[in-house]
Amino acid sequence: MAAVSEPVDLGAPWRAARPEPPPTRFHRVHGANIRVDPSGTRATRVESFAHGLCFSREPLAPGQVFLVEIEEKELGWCGHLRLGLTALDPATLAAVPEFSLPDLVSLGHTWVFAITRHHNRVPREDGPEAEAAVPSRPPALLVEPYLCIEQFRIPRDRLVGRSRPGLYSHLLDQLYELNVLPPTARRSRLGVLFCPRPDGTADMHIVINGEDMGPSARGLPAAQPLYAVVDVFASTKSVRLVQLEYGLPSLQTLCRLVIQRSVVHRLAIDGLHLPKGLKDFCKYDT
Hints:
Strand order of the largest sheet: 1-2-13-4-9-10-11
Order of helices and strands: EEEEEHEHEEHEEEEEHH
Largest sheet: 7 strands, antiparallel
Helix content: 10-25%
Structural class: alpha+beta
Mean pLDDT: 82
Strand content: 25-35%
Radius of gyration: 19 Å
Shape: globular
Low-confidence stretches: 1-16, 128-136
Number of strands: 13
C-alpha cells in the first residue's frame, strides 16, 4: 500500500485539464442490420455478417476517445471489428455502405482499419530507433494511471477491458491489463481518437485495452468534423460505448484501484466491511 501512496507525477508537457466533451452516442444513421438501443450506447448486428456500419452521433473533439467494448461474438464468420474516422457527415450519405472496407473508404475522406495489434501503425517520423523505444506492454494502472498520446493525457482506468466478477477474474483482468488477449476478444475495449498537429493535419490513433497502437493514419484534416466509424463486422456481433472521464482521476476511482489491488479477486470484495454501494462500485465497471 505504501508504494501507491506516492504522489503521481502529472508531467509538465501534459495538459492538466480540458473541457469535458459530451457523452458519446451512436448516430441514428447506421447499417441495415444494426439495431441501436434507446440509450444510443449499444449497437447489435441482428443478422448476416455485413451492413454493420455505425457512426458517432457527433464529431469527436480533439483527443476524445470513442471507446467501445465488445459485448457479443458470433461463431461461424471470418473477420472482426473495424474502427476508424471519417470526415463524411453520416446524415448526408445517400445510402450506408455495406462494408467500411472498401466501400466507405472508397467514398474518400475516411480512414478505417481492421483491428489487429501489430499492423495498424504507420512509421514514426523520428526513425526506427524511436519506434523500438515504444513500450511493448502498458504500465500498471497504479504505476501510471494515464495514457499519454501526443499532447493528450487520458485516465487509463476505463480504457482497459475487465472480466465479469468471478473466481478467476483476478487472472483474467491481468490478461486484459497486460493486453495479451486477442484484441477482438469478448470484453476487450477498443478506441479511436485524433490528435491535431501544428501543420493543421491530425494523426489518428487506435487504443486497445489501454495501449496506444501508435498513429494508424496521418494527414487527416483536423479543421473538418471527424466522426468515429465502427463496423460491427463478421464475428463481432454487439458493442457498447464506454464513457471516459478526461480530468484528474477522482478520489473514488483511485480508491477503487487500491481496493481492487488489495484483494485476491473481486468476489473477495464482498467480505470487506464496506457499504454495499461501494462494494458494487469496486466489483463492476460500467
